[in-house]
Amino acid sequence: MGRNKQYNETELVEGCRKNSRLHQELLYRKYFAKMMYMCLRYTDDRDIAMQIVNNGFLRVFKKIDSFSFRGSLEGWIRKLVYHCLSDYYKKHSKYIQFIVLEEKDDSVQNLPLDNLYEEDILKLVDTLPKATKEVFILYAIDGFTHVEIAKKLGISVGTSKWHLSSARIKLKKLLKQYDEIYKNAG
Q1: Residues near 63 by Cβ (< 8 Å), separated by ≥ 6?
Q2: What is the number of other CB atoms lying within 10 angstroms of the CB of residue 85?
Q3: Per-residue pLDDT in tens (0 to 9) along the chain, 186 residues
Q4: Which of 35, 49, 87, 143 has CB atoms 3.0–4.6 Å from 39's, for a disulfide?
Q5: DSSP 8-state assignment for residue 101
Q6: What is the CATH number of the domain that holds 79?
Q7: Which own/partner pairs from 176-182 qualify as long-range (CB within 8 Å, at least 24 positions apart)?
């Protein structure tokens, strides 16, 4: 028995429930890369991503007793890490909704943004085209200026501003669609 033995998910979970450091390490190693990749989709700062992943696994180990094997273990872990990602941005970044609505636009002022969770907004951001999403995240979440973004991505300042404007337009449209769904559900 030990590091060379292959454990199935049930054995890993049961070991973690008994606070076995070996089982915790094996679970961490098994899912680390996937969780790190998920976090790196929202920030290119590896230190921040690592902090979020580690906080996520700490949450996994604290809540392991609540895992009931109804869904996949990976999906359950992903959900907890994603909540840590959301919590991080809620605490450390400008609020995305303010960036989205920074330009005056009466058509979105009365949207029920309070009903959106940070993770819902991050999911909307994830639907943006790759370059537009990258600029938006660097600006709205990571706090870079257009000059810094242009240098970092090898684009012009004007292109950076265009991508941010495009992101705002697309996100406003998505928020309006969300508002329609919300109104129809209520």
Answers
A1: 80
A2: 25
A3: 456 678 899 999 999 999 999 999 999 999 999 999 888 887 778 998 999 999 999 999 999 999 988 888 998 998 899 888 877 876 765 545 444 444 444 444 444 444 455 567 777 888 899 999 988 888 877 667 899 889 989 999 999 999 998 988 888 888 777 767 656 655
A4: 49
A5: T
A6: 1.10.1740.10
A7: 176/107, 176/108, 176/111, 178/111, 178/116, 178/120, 178/124, 179/111, 179/112, 182/112, 182/115
Rg of the chain on CA atoms, in Å: 20
Q: Are residues 44 and 79 in the same domain?
A: yes
CA dihedral for 159, 161, 162, 164, sign (positive or negative): positive
Neighbouring CB atoms inside 10 A of 30's CB total 15
48 and 125 together in one domain = no
